[in-house]
Amino acid sequence: MNARSADALLCEWRRAARARRAVIVAAFAMPWLAALLAFALLHGNRWAFVVFALALLATAVAVWRVARGVDASWLARRLDVRRSDMEDSAALLFAGSTVTALEGLQRERLRQRIEAAPTTELRDPWPRRALAVAALPALAALALVLFWPATKGGIASTEAGSTPQAVGPPALPRLLSARLEIRPPAYTGLAVRTQSELDATAPQGATLRWTLRFSPQPESATLQFHDGRKVELQRHDRDWTGELRLARSGLYRIVLPTPLPKAQSGLHRLDASADDPPVLRVLQPARNLSLHQPGQRTWPLRFEAEDDHGLAATARLRVIQVRGTGEDIVSSERSLALRGSGTARSKRWSHALDLGALGLSAGDDVIVQVLVADNRTPGPQQTRSPSFILRWPPEDTMQASGMDGLAGTRLPAYLRSQRQVIIDAEALLQGKRRLSAERFRERSDALGGDQHALRLRYGRFLGEEGENAPVLPTNDVPTNDLPTNDPPTNDDHDAGPPPATAPAFGEAGDVLSEFGHVHDTAEAATLLDPTTKEVLRAALRQMWESELHLRQGDPATALPHAYKALGYIKQVQQADRIYLARTGIEVPPIDFDRRLRGEREGLADRRDPLAAATAPDPVPALAWQALQDTPDARGKAPDFDALERWVRERDAPGLDPLAVIAAIDAVRQDPACDRCRARLRAALWPLLPRPPATSGMRPRADAAGAAYLDALDAEAVQ
Prior knowledge:
single chain, 718 residues, alpha+beta, 6-stranded mixed β-sheet
């Protein structure tokens, strides 16, 4: 135990001696290292950084070698010098096991003496005078470096009474360090992050805070954006700071009174990532139209949703009950708040609609629609599910005695939902006091969407192209009530009525889908007679006016137009048959009197001379040609202002306007940069219009082919 205690003391003395020697060497080098680092940071000289790195490496090597020199031999010599009781035999303490009996007895005595006096000082004394002599010139050099920028930027300091002398041009400012703090909106739940790059991608609405440091200090600093926005930076000690709320993506650069070097004066990009609306999936029911089964008391509903940042705690279930047939339709609407289960970003809702509590009876329809919102602040985003209908078919009272009876009922059933728009608009006006202004505008806009879809469906009879109009949450439903096997749609809008099953003979709706071509021009639409088409066209005009005012949140102004459209629709419903007119080419009649007199006034040359084709958008094509690497194009600069305006005004597919604007700015800054010009040409290439397809020229015949053709010509002459 005593031997180990002595060994521990020896190890402790060795470590202390090594540390003292390393600190002394570092103390000699530290002032000079500080002066080199200050010069490199303040003046931005890369060679100064290289010298500082080499000096730091040399200091580390010197410290390592000095510490390594404190070994067992050094410790034995130092013990013999500092302690006389070692009797010049301290080397026996480190001799190991290869000692004689007499040497072992002497080593045991030395260990006992070490344990008896454990406070021996073996470390080197501090060389205070040498450190002071070495530090004075280093401190003088450091002071000169710190005060040098102040004297270099303007007039040199002079003594009292002497005339000031001008010095050289001021040093170019440089960006020493940059820090960009990104604070996402609170509702996203994302953490605050900090980066040294000036290009960033952040959520829309995030707060960006810049902290920049320059050398020498400029008088002002600004962040200039490509769309005209500016962020004035404020100085705090040696740092320049500024904040911006990121509303949209953009490009910016740092602008100082004296421009930064080219390597630091380029554009930086900020990308604002938009918050996606919730994704809603309906799990049950599987079809948009379901039929009431005998004995059914409930209607189970299940759906799930997910969002990138989080969903609202509750979802809203819109329930509309429709009673009556034809024009005698009465509807009622209610809204239910549902609380789901799951995580903040993914929830699932289940609800069983009690049909008995609704009072559902034969001939009634129940229409449901789910609305899910996210937690975006301000203005949550909503996703609306398609409309799902549960129909209790009425009792069959029609006596189908022939095709006339079927046609008289089927076709008017297709043209009958304008009254439902009127009923909903009147109900909305009656409940205006109970609704907020925003909720009232949303309901009115939804009615405008219903009117829009209805107008598109009627327009098909005039040959207008449809726009995938949704199935209305009213009494406008498909004429075929049979269920289909189509999978449910996850779209935000209804995809239209489900396709009908195999056509039955004599059904007017099937006659339309089988023999009528309604997706054609208005002049070629031949499903209705001309008089009925004019009435229907007048109804469409009134529907357009009604939709316009409903979209603007003014249902009171829209109601008169809706009533007029309903009156026209009633006239269309009274059409007793479908008129299929024969169409063909109608040439104008020939004026024989003019032909006999030989009059040629108004006749034009039938020859069609070829005119030079012009590109629909010549701006990118002209810029691309001016940037090509040819002797004629070198030295020419495209019209950058016109090209930049063209990029900002266009929304072409696959166009990244910020990348093109950054490429334009790079060429503007350095017109002789071939790589910058090539990058801009590559960005413009996808934007050029595609040339029209042309027939290729026949390849010329070779020697054998030419001889063959000459032989044929000679044979033809003979």
